[in-house]
Write a structure and sequence with these properties.
Elements (H helix, E strand, L loop, with lengths): L8 H21 L7 H10 L5 H22 L9 H46 L1
Helix pairs in contact: 2-3, 3-4
Length: 129
C-alpha cells in the first residue's frame, strides 16, 4: 500500500527531478565509496589560497578535474555532460579566474595611485602654508 503524500504535488515532483539530477551528476562526479569525494578534493585545493576569491575558482576547477578522473579512472560511461564539455568548463573557469585576478590587481593599482596622489597633494598644500 502506497503512503499518501500530504502537501503540494509540485513539491514532490520537484524532489523527484532533483533526485534524478543528483543520480546523473553523482555518477559522473563521485563514487559510491566516497559520494562527496569531489567536494573534499575541491576543498583541499581551495586551501592552497588564502584569498577566498581565488579559493572559489580553484574549488570549481577541482570539482571538474575530479569528475574527469572519476570517469576515466573508473572507465565509466558519461551519464551527464561530455568530457569535452567538462574540459571546456575548466578552460572557461580558468579564464574567468584570470580575468578576476587581473581586475583585482588593477583595483589595487588604482587605489595605490589615488593614495599617492592624495599624499602628494597634501604634501604640496602643506608646503604652500
Amino acid at each position: 500500500m502506497t503512503q499518501r503524500k500530504h502537501g503540494s504535488p509540485v513539491f514532490y515532483a520537484l524532489l523527484e527531478e532533483m533526485a534524478e539530477t543528483h543520480n546523473r551528476k553523482s555518477h559522473d562526479y563521485a563514487s559510491n565509496v566516497d559520494p562527496s569525494g569531489n567536494y573534499h578534493f575541491a576543498g583541499l585545493l581551495s586551501k592552497l589560497f588564502d584569498n577566498p576569491d581565488d579559493a572559489g575558482f580553484i574549488g570549481r576547477i577541482g570539482e571538474k578535474l575530479y569528475r574527469i578522473a572519476n570517469i576515466e579512472n573508473n572507465k565509466k560511461t558519461v551519464a551527464n555532460e561530455s568530457i569535452e564539455d567538462t574540459e571546456r568548463d575548466i578552460a572557461v573557469i580558468t579564464l574567468l579566474w584570470i580575468s578576476d585576478r587581473r581586475n583585482r590587481r588593477n583595483r589595487i593599482s588604482i587605489i595605490r595611485s589615488e593614495s599617492l596622489q592624495s599624499h602628494s597633494k597634501s604634501t604640496s598644500d602643506t608646503k604652500r602654508k
